[in-house]
Design a protein that fits this description.
Radius of gyration: 20 Å
CATH class of one domain: Alpha Beta
Distance between the termini: 33 Å
Strand content: 15-25%
CATH topology of one domain: Rossmann fold
Number of strands: 9
Shape: globular
Order of helices and strands: HHHEEHEHEEHEHHEHHEE
Largest sheet: 7 strands, mixed
Mean pLDDT: 85
CATH architecture of one domain: 3-Layer(aba) Sandwich
CATH superfamily of one domain: Vaccinia Virus protein VP39
Amino acid sequence: MTNELPQKQLVADSFGRAAAHYDDVAILQRQTGDELLDRLDLVKIKPQRIVDLGVGTGRNLSLLAQRYPNAQLIAVDIATEMLKHARQAHRQQQGLKRWLPSTKKPLYLAGDAEQLPLADNSVDLIFANLALQWCDPRISFAEIQRVLTPDGLVMFTTLGPDTLHELRKSWAKVDNYPHVNMFYDMHDVGEAMTEARLTGMVLDTDRFILTYNDAMSLMKDLKLLGAHNINRDRRRGLTGKQALAKVISAYEHFRQNNLLPATYEVVFGHAWGSIPAQQTSEDGSVKIPISQIKRKVIQP
């Protein structure tokens, strides 16, 4: 794993600025979020405490509340502006029902997936849609394992290295600076999950292709999403008109059916919390309380 990750404050600031217009262009985020929610149909769990990690503007938070009405929801995001929008969106979605005494109100916590503001073994389900790609997977999955109960579930999507390969190749015609964010591949993610002692790991990839009339529309959307170039080694300063014209011209080589494709490699994954270290004896045997042997999986 050699990717140079962006500075977290840059990530927080970028998504904070994007919060107001994020939903206008979050097409991919809605598609992957819906599929991730559908995959929850394949597991039979009754979580008491759920974390929406990288909650964004709160769309999936409300859908999780509908699916698990008796659970305590915890919204975590690195950008405080996103949390404000998530809180407002959830209130609007709940309507007058939010005033009922039986309605559980979500908790909203500013936090990084690499340093979760949560207690050990305290969460039954972590739902993370396109949030972990900004993290070192070795650190983030160790944190996820720490806060999950032994029979807790993490369900996530992240981005793979082939994401926006058209834009990356087009910029390569201009200079050697990184202009597109770099992401870990599925094998690195799997190794990190194994190191974190997560169990029952399942990973697969899918490709989503968004189309645009021109390259400038794509780059504008990336900026509105807060997902524009925040590489540590990115070129500082404004991009000149001549360089931008070269990028636009190079991107035209990818045009198909009168549209420009923007490919996203999406990694889907889930795993279960592992057995806490304190349950392992000196001889390597494992002691598991009967109360923890209750996980069930519905086969598709």
